[in-house]
Design a protein that fits this description.
- By secondary structure, the protein is of the alpha/beta class.
- It folds into three domains: 41-164 and 172-178, Rossmann fold (3-Layer(aba) Sandwich); 237-407, ANL, N-terminal domain (Rossmann fold); 411-513, ANL, C-terminal domain (GMP Synthetase, Chain A, domain 3, 2-Layer Sandwich).
- 33% of the residues lie in helices and 25% in strands.
- It is built from 16 helices and 25 strands.
- The strands form five sheets. Strands 2-1-10-9-11-12-13-14-15 form a nine-stranded mixed beta sheet, with helices on both faces.
- Strand 19 (387-396) and strand 20 (402-407) form a beta hairpin.
- Helix 2 crosses helix 3 (75-86), helix 4 crosses helix 5 and helix 7 (183-197) packs across helix 8 (215-226).
- The longest helix has 18 residues, at 41-58.
- It is globular, with a radius of gyration of 23 Å.
- The N and C termini lie far apart (71 Å).
Length: 514
C-alpha cells in the first residue's frame, strides 16, 4: 500500500493525519464531492502536501503566522486549511458574507499577509483588505501554483498543540475575537463525535451544509473523511439541495441547524414526502436550541433514534449532547456533557448553585480553545483556570442533564423580574401556525423593558396576536406574557442560522428614540 504518513506523526497528531491514514487504507476511494466534482483520498493528500509546500517555500510564510481564507464552501477549502496547518500556518477564516469592515479587521488583527480567496469574492477582498500582500485566487491561478509546488514532506516541525485555525466570533459583545483552535482539540473533538453519534465509519456518508469558515462547519466536513467515509459539501444552504442530496447520496448523517429545519417544515407535506430519509443514522443539530415542537416534527419525519442535539461554543467545541432516546423525554434540554467534558452551573462569584437552580454554565474539556488571538485580557476574563465561562444561563437536573435557559445578555428584565426569551419562544412555537419566533425586550417607561415577540408564520397558515397572547397567558406567569406580538417576514440571523435577538432589540431601541 502507498505510504501517506507525515514525518513526525508518531509524536504529534495533526488534523491532516487522519486523512492521510484513510488514504493509506483506501487511496482510490472518493473522499469529498462538491457540485459534481470529487477528490479521491490519494489526490486530497497530494494536494494538502502541495499547499503546505506552497505556503512555506512559495509564499514564504513561517511557523506561527496566519493567512486568511475568504471563500464559500468548496472542494478546495479542506486542502487549503489543512495544507496551511501542515506548514505551521493557521487559517484566519472569513465568512463569505462578511462586510468590508469585518474583512479588514480580521486580516489586520490576524496579521495575514496572504489571502486565499474565491474568484467570486476577489474584487471585494482586494478593496477591503489593502494590507494583504498576495491574493491566491481559487481557480486556474491556484491550480498552476499547486502544480509547481512539491508534493514531498514539508520541512516544518508542527505539534498537536500548534494552532490549526482562527475562526472569529460574531462580535455579539463588541469587536470580533479570534478563537485559536489547536490540532489536538480538533482531533479529539472528531473522536468524541464518532463515539457519540455512531455515524462516522468508512461505510458512512455525510452531507456538510454549514459554512466551513465556522469551527463547527469545518469539523462537520472533516470528521467523515478523518474516519475514512465520504462527505458531500454543499456550497450554500438550500433546502431542496440538502434534502435531495441526502436522498441521492443515501447519506447516513447531516448537520442540520434549527433554521434549516424551519425551512424544511415550512414546505408542504407532499413536497417533504418526495425525499427518502431511510438511509439516515443521525440528524445532528446545533448552533442554537431546537424548539421542543420542532423536535417532535423531526422525530416524526426522520424516524425515531436519529436526532442528536448538541450545545457548544466556538471556544469549547461541543459541550453537551442530547441523544435520540431522550429527545421527547427531556423537554427543552441540550443533554449530558460530551465525552471527557465536565460542566458546572455557577453564580456570579463562581460558586456552584444548588441542583435545579439557574446559573452560568462553565465548561472544561480537552477540546477547548487556546485563548483569543491578541486578547490576553479577554482570555483571562472568559476563563477560570481550566474552565471556560460561556455566558449562557443553564440548570441541571438530578440525572445530570443540562437545560439551556438562555444567553445571559439576552435576558429581559421587566418590572424587576428576570425573563428568559427562550421560555416564551417555546410557548409561541407550540402553535402550529408559528414557524419561527424571536423574543426580546423593548424600552418601557414603567417596567424598564417590555417583552416583545417577533413571529414568522408558516406559509398558508394564520393566527392573530390575541390568540398567541392567550396561549402565553395559559402557560406563563403574567409578567412573562408579551406586551406586543409582531408578525414579520423573517428574523435576522447570523451565518450559522442563529436568531440575532440583539438586532431585534436594537430595532426596538431605535424606534423608541424616533
Amino acid at each position: 500500500m502507498p505510504d501517506f504518513t507525515r514525518r513526525g506523526a508518531a509524536r504529534h497528531m495533526l488534523i491532516s493525519d487522519g486523512i492521510r491514514a484513510s488514504a493509506g487504507r483506501t487511496p482510490d476511494k472518493v473522499a469529498m464531492r462538491e457540485s459534481g466534482r470529487s477528490l479521491s483520498y490519494a489526490r486530497l493528500v497530494d494536494r494538502i502536501a502541495r499547499v503546505a509546500n506552497l505556503v512555506h517555500a512559495g509564499l514564504g510564510l513561517r511557523h506561527g503566522e496566519r493567512a486568511a481564507v475568504f471563500s464559500a464552501n468548496c472542494l478546495e477549502y479542506m486542502e487549503i486549511v489543512c495544507g496551511m496547518a501542515e506548514a505551521g500556518v493557521a487559517a484566519a477564516t472569513i465568512g463569505p458574507a462578511a462586510a468590508p469592515p469585518e474583512i479588514r479587521f480580521i486580516v489586520e488583527d490576524s496579521g495575514a499577509r496572504v489571502m486565499f480567496v474565491s474568484a467570486a469574492l476577489e474584487e471585494v477582498a482586494r478593496a477591503a483588505a489593502p494590507s494583504v500582500e498576495r491574493f491566491i485566487v481559487i481557480g486556474p491561478a491556484y491550480e498552476a501554483l499547486l502544480a509547481e509546488a512539491s508534493a514531498g514532506p514539508c520541512p516544518v516541525e508542527v505539534t498537536e498543540h500548534d494552532i490549526f485555525s482562527v475562526p472569529y466570533t460574531s462580535g455579539a459583545t463588541g469587536r470580533p475575537k479570534g478563537v485559536q483552535l489547536s490540532h489536538r482539540g480538533r482531533v479529539l473533538s472528531g473522536y468524541a463525535m464518532a463515539a457519540e453519534h455512531g455515524c462516522y465509519t468508512p461505510q458512512d456518508r455525510a452531507v456538510a451544509t454549514t459554512p466551513m469558515f465556522h469551527g463547527a462547519g469545518f469539523l462537520m466536513a472533516l470528521t467523515p473523511i478523518w474516519f475514512g467515509g465520504q462527505v458531500e459539501i454543499l456550497p450554500r444552504f438550500d433546502i431542496d439541495s440538502l434534502m435531495g442530496t441526502i436522498t441521492s447520496f443515501q447519506a447516513t448523517s447531516a448537520y442540520i441547524v434549527p433554521a434549516h429545519f424551519a425551512a424544511l417544515f415550512a414546505l408542504p407535506e407532499q413536497k417533504r414526502a418526495q425525499w427518502d430519509m431511510r438511509s439516515m443514522k443521525a440528524a445532528i443539530s446545533g448552533t442554537a436550541p431546537l424548539p421542543q415542537a420542532t423536535k417532535e416534527r423531526i422525530v416524526a419525519y426522520f424516524g425515531e433514534g436519529k436526532l442528536f442535539e448538541r450545545y457548544g461554543t466556538t471556544e469549547t467545541s461541543i459541550a453537551t449532547s442530547l441523544g435520540p432516546r431522550d429527545q421527547l423525554r427531556k423537554q427543552a434540554c441540550v443533554g449530558l456533557p460530551y465525552p471527557a467534558t465536565q460542566v458546572r452551573i455557577c453564580d456570579g462569584d463562581g460558586n456552584e448553585v444548588a441542583l435545579g437552580e439557574v446559573g452560568e454554565l462553565w465548561v472544561s474539556s480537552p477540546y477547548m480553545f487556546s485563548g483569543y488571538l491578541n486578547l490576553p485580557e479577554a482570555t483571562a476574563a472568559g476563563t477560570r483556570g481550566d474552565w471556560f465561562v460561556t455566558g449562557d444561563l443553564a440548570r441541571q437536573d438530578e440525572e445530570g442533564f443540562v437545560y439551556l435557559v438562555d444567553r445571559k445578555n439576552d435576558m429581559v428584565i421587566s418590572g424587576g423580574e428576570n425573563i428568559y426569551p427562550r421560555e416564551v419562544e417555546e410557548v409561541i412555537l407550540a402553535h402550529p401556525a408559528a414557524a419561527e419566533c424571536g423574543v426580546t425586550g423593548a424600552p418601557h417607561p414603567y417596567f424598564g423593558e417590555a417583552v416583545t415577540a417577533f413571529v414568522v408564520l408558516r406559509p398558508g397558515m394564520h393566527v392573530d396576536a390575541a390568540t398567541l397572547t392567550s396561549l402565553c397567558r395559559e402557560k406563563l406567569s403574567r409578567y412573562k406574557v408579551p406586551k406586543e406580538i409582531r408578525f414579520v417576514e423573517s428574523l435576522p440571523r447570523n451565518s450559522m442560522g442563529k436568531v440575532l435577538r440583539r438586532e431585534l432589540r436594537a430595532r426596538l431601541i431605535a424606534e423608541s428614540k424616533a
